[in-house]
């Protein structure tokens, strides 16, 4: 921290990542602000700056630094070692700056109270906020939480046995269903009764949406660049494997399929899809596997004239960023990821985005576009465009492959 950066922070005024304090500030108030920043996007506490942005300085900088370190130790879990404190001289006055880093991985509290930074204020977090925050940061095993309203009768035994058959390949262990469910993590004891877990219901439930009506995929075929008209729509329900299969079928019936004549390898006609099936399935599976199930909103699958968009609730876990996702494997829901891997839906080596990119590249289409916010994760697959443009694009001299299609609206459910 130098004088130029300090001036820049003061010029920003108090806000999401900046707080002004005076030397007289109590240690408990300092600790609360550190907690609020730690539970949000990090930030800077400037001691020696008044609320109106005037640099008034401090007289006992070392005492203030000690007070900040003590405040950091009061936080649970401790922020000591994470918070850095420096002393900067500006305009002949001394300012003490405490920096709370971004991308911390815990949910922090002070004397049992949880707060989070919102704008220039520290807001108290409700129990539901704390639960959701911990799940987003990957410190809460929400998928392993027992659902107190459910019973083991809500689970489908055949689905459990099918997964075990895929997983073990040598036969099912001689254990009771109740034992097998607990070993898998699909059930857990709660108040002396074995109950299905969140993950158990989502993967093996007879009807998961009875307990999680938001665990669905809202799919739509939208017409026009802005999608102002709806040609087809569906609310896709079922277990996670069922939803993936149904969503892939929805895409298949609402996108084009044709024949490419003169394949460069075989010189025979071969089927061509508007979007590579491998990329579509990977995007949908990842959304189901990695979404935040505490967020009470569905996955959205939107098929536009020129693109396919899959958006799921829940941003990236701390420590991950869009630029370095390929090859990273840190699932929000590790049990679900494990089970979907056993069933052949996902890999566990962070290669999902690589597979999507390769499938799009092989189809001659742009690489997948990835967007992540704190609340959502979106994958966009760009298609070849309208029928005429697509045909013109692939129709080259006689030696090149040619796409053929019947003259019909491009949104027809069959093509070629």
Characterization of the model:
- 31% of the residues lie in helices and 22% in strands.
- The chain has 416 residues and is an alpha+beta fold.
- It folds into three domains: 3-125, Schlafen, AAA domain (Methyltransferase, Cobalt-precorrin-4 Transmethylase, Domain 2, 2-Layer Sandwich); 142-206, no CATH class; 217-256 and 272-386, 2-Layer Sandwich (Heat Shock Protein 90), CATH 3.30.565.60.
- The strands form five sheets. Strands 10-9-13-14-16-15 form a six-stranded mixed beta sheet, with helices on one face. Strands 1-2-4-3 form a four-stranded mixed beta sheet, with helices on both faces. A three-stranded antiparallel beta sheet has the order 12-11-17, covered by helices on one side.
- α2 crosses α3 (61-74), α8 packs antiparallel against α9 and α9 runs antiparallel to α11 (352-362).
- It is globular and about 80 Å long.
- Residues 387-416 have low confidence and may be disordered.
How does CATH name the architecture of the largest domain?
A: 2-Layer Sandwich
Strand-residue proportion: 15-25%
Shape: globular
CATH class category label of the largest domain: Alpha Beta
SSE string, helices as H and strands as E: HEHEHEEEEHHHEEHEEHEEHEEHHEEHE
Biggest β-sheet, characterized? 6 strands, mixed
Q: Biggest sheet: strands side by side, in what order? A: 10-9-13-14-16-15
Helix content: 25-40%
Question: What would you call the structural class?
Answer: alpha+beta
What's the count of strands? 17
Give the rounded overall mean pLDDT: 86
Radius of gyration: 27 Å
Number of helices: 12
Q: Number of folding domains?
A: 3
């Amino acid at each position: 921290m130098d004088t130029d950066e300090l001036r820049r922070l003061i010029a920003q005024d108090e806000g999401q990542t900046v707080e002004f304090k005076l030397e007289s500030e109590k240690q408990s108030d300092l600790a609360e602000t550190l907690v609020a920043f730690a539970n949000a996007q990090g930030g800077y506490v400037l001691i020696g700056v008044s609320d109106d942005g005037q640099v008034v300085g401090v007289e006992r900088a070392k005492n203030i630094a000690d007070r900040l370190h003590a405040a950091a130790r009061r936080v649970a879990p401790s922020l000591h070692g994470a918070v850095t404190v420096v002393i900067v001289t500006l305009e002949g006055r001394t300012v003490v700056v405490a920096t709370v880093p971004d991308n911390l991985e815990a949910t922090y509290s002070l004397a049992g109270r949880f707060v989070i930074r919102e704008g220039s204020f520290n807001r108290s977090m409700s129990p539901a906020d704390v639960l959701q925050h911990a799940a987003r940061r990957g410190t809460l095993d929400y998928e392993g939480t027992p659902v107190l309203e459910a019973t083991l009768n809500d689970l489908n035994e055949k689905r459990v046995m099918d997964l075990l058959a895929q997983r073990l390949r040598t036969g099912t262990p001689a254990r009771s269903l109740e034992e097998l469910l607990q070993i898998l993590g699909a059930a857990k004891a709660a108040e002396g009764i074995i109950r299905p877990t969140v993950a158990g219901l989502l993967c093996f439930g007879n009807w998961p949406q009875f307990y999680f009506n938001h665990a669905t995929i809202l799919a739509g075929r939208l017409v026009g660049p802005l999608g102002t008209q709806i040609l087809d729509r569906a609310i896709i329900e079922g277990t996670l494997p069922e939803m993936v299969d149904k969503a892939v079928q929805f895409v298949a019936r609402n996108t084009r399929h044709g024949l490419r004549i003169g394949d460069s390898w075989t010189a025979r006609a071969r089927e061509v899809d508007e979007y590579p099936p491998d990329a579509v399935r990977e995007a949908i599976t990842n959304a189901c596997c990695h979404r935040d199930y505490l967020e009470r909103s569905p996955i959205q699958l939107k098929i536009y004239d020129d693109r396919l968009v899959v958006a799921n609730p829940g941003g990236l876990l701390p420590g991950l960023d869009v630029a370095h996702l390929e090859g990273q494997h840190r699932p929000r829901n590790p049990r679900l990821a494990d089970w979907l891997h056993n069933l052949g839906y996902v890999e566990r080596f962070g290669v999902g985005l690589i597979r999507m990119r390769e499938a799009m590249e092989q189809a001659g289409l742009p690489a997948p576009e990835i967007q992540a916010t704190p609340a959502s994760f979106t994958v966009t697959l760009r298609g070849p465009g309208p029928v005429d443009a697509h045909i013109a694009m692939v129709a080259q001299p006689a030696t090149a492959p040619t796409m053929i299609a019947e003259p019909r609206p491009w949104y027809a459910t069959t093509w070629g």
